[in-house]
Amino acid sequence: MAFAPILHSEWLKIRTLRSLPGALLALFAVTTAFSALSAADGRSDPDFDPLFTAFAGVLPGQIAAVTFGAMAVSSEYHGGALRLSLAAVPRRGQWFAAKMTAIAVPALLVGLITACAALAAARSGLGDAADGIGGAEQVRAVLGCGIYLMLMALFAAGLTALFRSGVATLSLLTPFILVVPFVIGEAAGTAADFLPDKAGQIALHQTYDGTLGPWSGLAVTALWTAAALCAGAWCVRRRDA
User: Distance (Å, rounded) from C-alpha 194 to C-alpha 225?
Assistant: First the structure.
């Protein structure tokens, strides 16, 4: 079966399931709003990084990206939807690839739009500090933000296929993203830099110390995502629908 019609059908599912566009809208709104607020208040911080301050809204906003990826896959496990999907597309690997592509493309596009909006909203709050952010750094951060949010959505999608539950995925990832890096960050030292969220967020910093840089950090996040997707694909292929 050709890949294009499978991808089109998966895109229709995402477009017509009301909660999924809602999650992308929340990603845009939360990230932009928190970036603007952070820029207005962040200059009092002695460790002020103007670029990361402009993208500080990504920290809460990424929960919406994770939710989007988890819900897009978990919807297949309700009401026998997965059995219908696999009856239409017997090649499970092909179906899984189409599903992940249908998640990745809108997550990337909304992530890039969100990054541009967050940067624009934050610049006025940063005032003169915004002049210290170079054009190349802004482009790198915008691209890095879009890629990072896409990878986190796919990471959640892969785990949901593994656990067969969006609730289980969100119960694991939400505290993992919001709490774990801050709790173990000092104790773990440089090892914490290799966590999927902290590694990818290096691309949002103007200055960075440690083992990883912006693109190598995103590569680490991509490896975590690839591992989750491989595990999810294996479960889809091996387990009963």
Answer: 13
For Cα atoms 5, 11, 17, give the angle at the middle one, nearest 5 degrees: 140
Query: For 102-132, what is each residue's pLDDT tens digit?
Result: 999 999 999 999 999 999 998 888 877 777 7
Q: Enumerate residues 6+ apart whose C-beta is below 8 A from 38.
A: 53, 54, 56, 57, 122, 125
The owner of tokens 């909660």 is 19
pLDDT single digits (tens) 20-57? 999 999 999 999 999 999 887 755 565 678 899 899 99
DSSP codes, 138-166: HHHHHHHHHHHHHHHHHHHHHHHHHHT-H
Tell me the one-letter amino acid at 169. T
Dihedral of the alpha carbons of 228, 230, 231, 237, in degrees to the nearest 10 = 140
Distance of CA 240 to the CA centre of its chain: 28
Question: SS3 sequence, 87-125?
Answer: HHCCCHHHHHHHHHHHHHHHHHHHHHHHHHHHHHHHHHH
CA triple 133-135-139, angle to 5 deg: 105
